[in-house]
Design brief:
195 residues; 1 helix; 72% strand
Length: 195
């Protein structure tokens, strides 16, 4: 069992000035900070011979964006002496960066951005050949909400872009990996991802 508390403070002070061709000089300044307080816990244990589970959770209180509850659960099963399978499910959030929320010489900040949120799961199998070679395959599926993306500007914004929440996205795929260790003085690995 692991328990923890985190207190984070982010602060930015920035002054910038630029001029492009015959456009007027553009100057921007800002000084901003925000805090994030969190408590978290994780439990790792064996529920049966060869079966290990992990469960974790975190509660965040962000001074700008409010509260968030995130977690992750996983199970790993040692099927045989050289083969194991595992599965995991979890969610997360990401607050907008300062340069996305506040204006600079090159962008127009968007203080109304919502944090990105994601839910993901994966399943994998790993097989060891002898004590030097390991091969694995992982299927993963990720769903994103409130994605923060850069949007180009036009003449009305003096060609300065901004950031917007652009709805949702879905990514899934398979990752294949092979590793060989202690081949003389080298370790060799190769991976392939179909996304």
């Amino acid at each position: 069992i692991s328990l923890g508390v985190a207190v984070e403070r982010e602060q930015v002070r920035q002054t910038s000035e630029s001029q492009f061709a015959t456009f007027p000089v553009s100057t921007s300044r800002f000084d901003a900070h925000r805090t994030n307080e969190a408590v978290y816990a994780q439990v790792i244990g064996t529920i049966a011979r060869g079966v290990t589970v992990t469960a974790s959770g975190r509660v965040d209180d962000n001074a700008t964006y409010g509260g968030f509850v995130t977690g992750r659960g996983s199970v790993a099963w040692q099927v045989g002496p050289s083969t194991s399978v595992r599965a995991a499910l979890g969610n997360a959030f990401k607050t907008p960066a300062f340069d996305e929320a506040f204006s600079s010489a090159f962008t127009i900040g968007n203080p109304d951005l919502d944090p990105e949120r994601t839910m993901s799961w994966e399943a994998a199998v790993e097989h060891r050949i002898g004590d030097r070679v390991t091969a694995s395959a992982t299927y993963f599926d990720q769903r994103f909400r409130n994605l923060i993306q850069y949007v180009n500007g036009d003449a009305s914004t003096q060609f300065r872009g901004t950031f917007e929440n652009l709805g949702a996205a879905h990514a899934r795929g398979v990752e294949l990996e092979a590793r060989a260790v202690h081949l003389g003085t080298f370790d060799v690995s190769a991976s392939f991802t179909a996304l």
